[in-house]
Amino acid sequence: MSPARATVATVRAAALLLTLGGLGATLWYGLADPAAAVAFGTLIALGELTRRGAAPEEREPAPLAAAGALAYALFGQNGGHATTHGVLQTVAVVVAAGLAGTVPHVARGNGPDLDQLARRILTVGFAAACFQPLYNRGTLTAHLGQGPSYALFLAVLLLLTALCDAVLAAVLHRARTGHPFGPLLRDELRALLGIGSAVGATGAVMALGVAAAGLWALPVFAVPLLLTQVSFRRYAAVRTTNRETIASLARATEIAGCTPPGHAHRVAALSRAVGRELGLSGSELTVLEYAALMHDIGQLSLVDPVDGGATALLPAAEQRRIALLGAAVVRQTGVPAAVAVVVERQADPYREQPLPARIVRAVNAYDDLAAGSACGGLGALERLRLGTARDYHPDVVESLARVLARGGVAPAPSG
User: Fold this and answer.
1) How far apart are CA 298 and CA 256, in angstroms?
2) Per 3-state DSSP, what percentage of the chain is helix, strand, and coil (rounded to 5)?
């Protein structure tokens, strides 16, 4: 078994063992405080029912379910009365309710992501293990009381839980893709500032609200998160529309016969993978992807089309002219100004280029040369290595080689 598969298998096995332990203990000893278990379980199941297919950048597709699970892990009092449900029952209720909420999705052929399910189980287990034993033994209330010190403890525990979840997500993503761990972890930590922070804050406030007012606090505090979820979904929809618009513009060169079919999407997919390999993340990757999709749009302004659309084979001055024409077009599309800069600088000597422009230039050349080389990808990669004195940055070329050695990436659909 490869190390990547072993990592994924280990995480899933740990989640499965924790789940079996939780379900077994709950069946053996019975439910402590059944009313609270049903209330939190119903909230988690409803959260899963509202889950939709997530966009690639959407970190948490079921924020209400995640907040409810976290609240149950931090659930210490019910209307002033101490609870004793413990760690294993917490895991059992979260798993059972989550699976119940996914039944309609499974019936429609949209089952849960096993890695995401494993993350939630382990993260909730971590939070419950840090909180429940201390609370049930009276250690927390004896030393911190119920005032600001207790709230500070919950805040620190939320940060540790979020860090645990981010590390797990980055580890699983690295195992699936082979991308560097550091940029992946940065992406996960940045995502916590969005819906992740709303989930954590809502989970803690729910637990505190139920402690003071009872289970009636659950629906009251669920409504703001539902509204936040709707807002994030609309934002994700806008980003998806922008990406589709840019992808359509990229296809214009193919429809006009200026570039081979799928060229822009192949360059964008490979550029994004190389960017991750070199440590880019977040908005940097978005700019890189948009620039790669639109890197050839300047060919639409040419009177005589480039043979085969292979700009890498043109003289430097002609490459520069096409890049300038393309940047002028990109500036009219409303995308971030950084995208136009990358398109404009892609034909410069690499020592004068920003990193995204270096990536686009090398990957575009690879795709152009691979299509026209008798040796295919190997021959194209060798020609890039021979051009590292001026045209292609050595680090970018070697990163491209590593991505290709792992099998490259599947390009986005061109339709």
Assistant:
1) 12
2) 75, 0, 25
Q: What is the pTM of this model?
A: 0.75
Cβ atoms < 10 Å from Cβ of 410: 9
Round to whole Å and give the CA distance between 367 and 47.
Answer: 44
Separation between Cα atoms, residue 56 and residue 74, nearest integer Å? 30
Q: Indicate the pLDDT class of residue 408, thresholds 50, 70 and 90.
A: low
And the tokens for 71? 């609240």
pLDDT digit string, tens, across residues 24-62: 999 999 888 899 999 999 999 988 888 765 444 456 678
- Residues ≥6 apart with Cβ < 8 Å to 288: 271, 272, 275, 280, 342, 356, 359, 360
Tokens of 272: 């994004």
Q: How far is Cα 205 from Cα 219, in angstroms, rounded to an integer?
A: 12
Q: What pLDDT, in 10s, does the model give residues 369-401?
A: 887 655 577 888 888 888 888 889 999 999 999
